[in-house]
Amino acid sequence: MYNDTIQQGVGNQSTNNSCDKNDGFKYPLYSTIFSIVFVVGLITNVVAMYIFTCSLKLRNETTTYMMNLVVSDLLFVCTLPLRVFYFINQNWPFGSTLCKVSVSLFYTNMYGSMLFLTCISVDRFLAIVYPFRSRALRTKRNAKIVCVAVWVLVLSGSLPTGFLLETTSQEKSKNNSTFCFENFSSNQWKAHLSKVVIFIETVGFIIPLLLNVCCSIMVLHTLRRPQTISRGGKLNKTKILRMIVVHLLIFCFCFIPYNVNLVFYALVRTKTLTGCSVESVVRTIYPIALCIAVSNCCFDPIVYYFTSETIQNSFKRKSQVSRTYDAKFSEALQSETSSNLQCSLRTLKAKVFHNESSV
């Protein structure tokens, strides 16, 4: 959840005093990181969407999950310019509805990304560990059903969270700024948001994390079996190992810091954890962890490449077509040059013989 502007006393302090906030660095940090994520995320995901929709002739259940992940990333990336404007000016002039939608899309992207990455991991697990028994289960139709279920689950958690937020004006401010993203009250945390955190942490983070780790371990265990090597030469251990490492690194790097810190942030906001030192640490880590979590939009296309052989083959085909075209063009150029040279020699020879005969 985004930091709030309300300062209240915690621990043994009186209610008239408050802990000193040390998270003022978050505004330039957010505006810088979000700008970079917008540019990189927009370009990479638009390219990925183009490949999925226009270049790939063969689509399977894995690419179905990836296309939904691209949609989730693009929806969130499109809201980043509004966030950058807000964090630079510390004022939200776009109205309450856009504020709520922007917050909702943040959680939709984060937990949608985790769930779709988990779907990809489970799909690869079934394909490698149970290649024959999972054929009836691993279909594009079932993949679409799973994607619909993921969207329903994610939206059921993110929309209520976003629409609990209200844009508020700070009357003591000189320019009467309107705040967004950071004005959940303590009462909202105690009454609603603490329950939302429990739900999204369990369904959106802990379960996907366990599934990703377990599926990866099972795949690695399967690759160690002797009979796996003789499976028609289709399994390349190096590629699969690289795929698993990239997948887990991105998942853990992007999502573990934010979600672990979110638990402590919720405990601080609900006064379960008290003390200015605790609040100071949590508030300092929170913006950094949030920026890392937002960067998943830039890393997801890396997962697409390393996970999908279809995409890799598409790049290889394009590269081969380009090399073939260059080779044919070179051959044609050499042929044309040789032909022109032969024609010039024949002309020169004819002129020589003509001159000799006229002497």
Helicity level: over 70%
Fourth-tier CATH superfamily name of the largest domain: Rhodopsin 7-helix transmembrane proteins
Low-confidence stretches: 1-17, 169-174, 321-330, 352-359
Assembly state here? single chain
- The separation of the N and C termini measures 101 Å
Please give the number of β-strands: 2
How is the main sheet built?
Answer: 2 strands, antiparallel
Alpha-beta classification: mainly alpha
CATH architecture of the largest domain: Up-down Bundle
Total number of helical segments? 11
Q: What is Rg? A: 29 Å
Morphology: globular
Top-tier CATH class of the largest domain: Mainly Alpha
Mean pLDDT: 76
Membrane topology: Multi-pass membrane protein
Protein name: G-protein coupled receptors family 1 profile domain-containing protein
Domain G-protein coupled receptors family 1 profile: 44-304
Transmembrane segments: 33-53, 65-88, 110-133, 145-165, 196-220, 240-265, 285-307
What is the element layout, followed by pairings?
Layout: H1 26-55, H2 61-77, H3 80-89, H4 96-129, H5 140-163, E1 168-169, E2 178-179, H6 186-223, H7 226-229, H8 237-269, H9 276-294, H10 296-307, H11 309-358
Antiparallel strand pairs: 1-2
Write structural notes for this entry.
The protein has helices at 26-55, 61-77, 80-89, 96-129, 140-163, 186-223, 226-229, 237-269, 276-294, 296-307, 309-358; strands at residues 168-169, 178-179. It has 359 residues and is mostly helical. A two-stranded antiparallel sheet has the order 1-2. Belongs to the G-protein coupled receptor 1 family. It is found in: Membrane.
